[in-house]
Amino acid sequence: MRLDLQPWGETMAELVIAARAAEAAGAGVVWAPELHRSAFTTAAALATGTSKVAGGEARIGVGTGIALAFARSAMLTAIAAADLDELSEGRFRLGLGTGVARLNQDWHGVEFERPLPRLRDTVAIIRKVLAGGDPINHKGVRSIRVRGWRRPYAPVREHIPIYLAGVGPAMVALAGEVADGWIAHELCPPADLRDRILPILGKAGRPDFDVVAAACCSVDDDPATARRRAANVVGFYASVRSYAETFGAAGFGEVCENASNALRNGRPADDLGHLVPDEMVDAYTIAGTPAQCAAKIAAYDGLADAIKLSPPSYGLPAEEVRESQDRLLELVGSLR
To answer: Structural domains in the chain?
Structure first.
């Protein structure tokens, strides 16, 4: 199983340093999220800051994990993907996700109606743009009609892999149908992957389809410290209404209610870890000593092709995140 990393950095320069350390530790792909930074800009920095080739073979991959699918036109997304594949000399992976309705409508001013067919159309348009040709036509919830345009640069590869993020069954099924890979939500326990996700993906007969699990991984010699650092990640999602049903089914409905109330009363969304019991942290993150974390990572083996690991960062001071990332990189290196 490939070990990937979603690196953290207080500055873009520090992000690149972390990506280089991930490469040295033997990580397979570094993924750039999209929230406080542009996923494409970050991916460009990671692509140019890591080794492009070693002994004639591509080294660490670079991906967007994930870029927002609807906040840009599908054509601009395709052009950015082609540029990034050129910058990385064929190491780029385009990870896309829908985001939630409020983020699309209130933050970015874009429609969110019918997200499933909208994402299907987005993937189709991106592939048509990357394939070249004139004209480029697609009619659907998202449409495109282009005449007299052709990218005048030779592509690095014929095919750039597209990954889709999905939590609900319809989005997961769409990834299995139209994408080259699926990227998990940050809280994706092995049991959920085994019992719910894999049957929907229908990977059988598609050996090249890449299943990327994901987890916040908090490593410390003191398990209590490791759990405390990871708790804010779980607390953040516990306050989001979209996840209440999932957490409630697992017996953590009261935690969600308390987190939502705290948020309404002015508590920051990334500072709700005090409401999260240890058993919930253990259920949804990889937290503990190096040996405990290694065992929890091993539980994904045979289920996922890769696991995207990220250090805890929610509500923590930069020095503590930095220390957590260093311990995570040490762990990755020890498992390669």
So the answer is: 1-183 (3.20.20.30), 214-336 (no CATH)
